[in-house]
Design a protein that fits this description.
homodimer, 18% strand, alpha/beta, elongated, DNA-binding
DNA sequence: ATGAAAGCGCTAACAC
DNA sequence: GTGTTAGCGCTTTCAT
């Protein structure tokens, strides 16, 4: 229990033979300072190993940093995890004077997002963190940035935009992982069918591409059955799968690259009672967890939505407070491999009472 | 950009018709206050929805919270990850006036830890976070706690002690996961050999128990070959494995429940050129990652040591500052399933430049 | 261009 | 038992 030991601006002022006001001007890059004094102060700060006290800074700012989070409400199954990440960031960042405002549309549909962004009073915010709706959201993001409000995207990106960074998953990488797992689980031979939500989305293309890359290179005895598209409709995925299973094409593996595709596919396999097929899906929900438990789904690849919103917010605050800039425009959170016996960590109840996520 | 909107003690004081000093006495549970006034103040605080401003609190404390972290240096391969977690916690918690002191012995051997704890001037610390050495460390931990210095353990526990909580992995659960993966990767049949570091440690017993539980219940066609002990010596694990492979007992799976066991086993399999065996190991290192890449190791179960030290520190600070108490004495971090194509996220380089771990 | 001073919300020391 | 006051390190405003 000793007094604070960190270097303060006061010490720098003394050392540099000036006042704390001037030190602040130098450190915070504010105008009204002689370049020579500025250089000297910076030099001293460097030598003393000064690190700013973020708490004192936030306290004296006397203003809150207001951050708007644009996302959706449904399907609640999925978005509640995102919301939990936001809540976590909210409680942690409150100490830094950060206030978060949720701006949710019912769905993450292009129209709904457009309307929301159209009517958004962006001048109220010091930063915007957006679960973006792809191409249609680009002009809005660019406008916000042009007007001086930094934007970060998460979960779903708007690649061409001027956003500062994107926090999400590496689809190509997770596709490769899926390929490897499928290859190993099938013992290197068989026939696998692939079903996706929309075949023309980059998410599908990347997951599919990664999957095929590995299968073709490392598991030549596994063939890939041409893929089907279910338009994010579990019922459609179900009927496609049911059809495939009936034809008996000796398919022993299914790779479904999206949430809805996984739900529908699993349902069909359960209905057909086919225990001898290996199913690798994406994302988690009550129904997928049940399938994991009952053995109708072999494994799920999960890209922790909690982490995506949580980290995007943390980094935006770092940008706003410390002027941090990302090393890359795209920041990937690790995909989690979920089997039956490590599934419990991802149930909603578990997450809610997880002491590490408070 | 508006002024702070949170309720302050000043507002509570005004509302309760008293001074901020009294409010503080009530809120911080300090003596010298009339029970009646205290109740009234608490009531008002409750009504106004007061949340303390941790920044202002840390600032005005004028003291640092000094936390000692007891751990080891070697094998550096492993402990450097633990150290990274400590560094992360250190930078994040610095704002809260937390100073961390590293107290590392060369190895985590009973004698070395005992000596370190014996000579530890625990009165210097507000809290101690210990990578404990099991039973031998219990009396020391109990003494520290008795003398008023709270203790938390991480990575390795001292179960019978008075520590506030333990942050580590759930061995039984990861054993089950290993069993499930082995069962699925072997297509439900075969013979698997198990090798561990010390057969009488709880870690081994739990991992082994979880593994057998699942294999016996769900994969009756898989037989388990009696286990071998390698005393944390890779060379010994190597010779055991080489022997087993030579005898040709039709073993097609290996489950190694510890780091050294995994390293040695993988080496033997590589030497024998046996591609047809499935190996599930524990932990990660340069050599294991190389084996994953070359296909000599199928998958590794990884209990993120970074998270263990990082979270233990965070929670200890929460305890010290907010009086938080854990919901359970044992807090588990999730085991990660690592294959070749998601391995990169766990390389040291990747972790170092990971923007989420700064 | 620079210095002095007020004050953010809280704790701790000191008066009464 | 209670009120008052002096800071913690920083930002901001107002003099100079």
């Amino acid at each position: 229990m000793k007094p604070f030991e960190r270097v303060t601006i006061k010490q720098i002022a003394k050392e540099a033979g000036t006042s704390i006001g001037t030190v602040d001007r130098a450190l915070s890059n504010r105008p009204g300072i002689n370049p020579a004094t500025k250089a000297r102060v910076l030099q001293v700060a460097q030598e003393l190993g000064y690190t700013p006290n973020r708490m004192a800074s936030a306290l004296s700012r006397k203003k809150v940093l207001r951050i708007g989070v644009v996302s959706a409400k449904n399907p609640a199954d999925f978005y509640s995890y995102i919301d939990q990440g936001i809540t976590q960031a909210e409680t942690e960042l409150r100490d830094y004077g950060v206030v978060i405002e949720r701006l949710y549309s019912p769905l993450l549909a292009p129209d709904e997002q457009r309307e929301l962004l159209e009517n958004l009073d962006y001048t109220k915010y010091d930063g915007l963190v957006i679960n973006a709706g792809g191409e249609p959201s680009v002009p809005y993001i660019n406008k916000f940035v042009a007007e001086g409000v930094p934007v970060a995207t998460f979960n779903s990106d708007s690649p061409g935009s001027d956003r500062l960074f994107f926090v999400g998953s590496n689809s190509r990488q997770s596709g490769r992982l899926g390929g490897e797992m499928m290859g190993k689980l099938l013992g290197g031979k068989g026939k696998v069918a692939i079903i996706g939500n929309y075949l023309n989305t980059t998410t599908f293309v990347d997951r599919f591409g990664g999957f095929c890359e590995v299968i073709q290179r490392e598991y030549p005895e596994i063939s890939i059955y041409p893929c089907a598209e279910c338009y994010s409709n579990p019922a459609r995925a179900y009927s496609i799968m049911a059809g495939l299973l009936k034809e008996d094409l000796h398919i022993n593996g299914f790779f479904s690259t999206g949430y809805s595709a996984t739900v529908g596919a699993v349902e069909a396999i359960k209905e057909a009672g086919r225990r001898n097929v290996t199913v690798i899906g994406y994302d988690l929900s009550e129904s997928i967890m049940q399938a994991l438990k009952d053995g109708w789904c072999t494994s799920a690849l999960y890209q922790d939505p909690f982490q995506q919103s949580y980290q995007a917010l943390r980094l935006m605050v770092r940008h706003l407070i410390e002027g941090w800039v990302p090393p890359s425009k795209t920041l990937f959170v690790e995909a989690q491999v979920v089997f039956r016996y490590n599934m419990d960590s991802y149930t909603k109840e578990h997450l809610q009472e997880n002491p590490f996520r408070y």
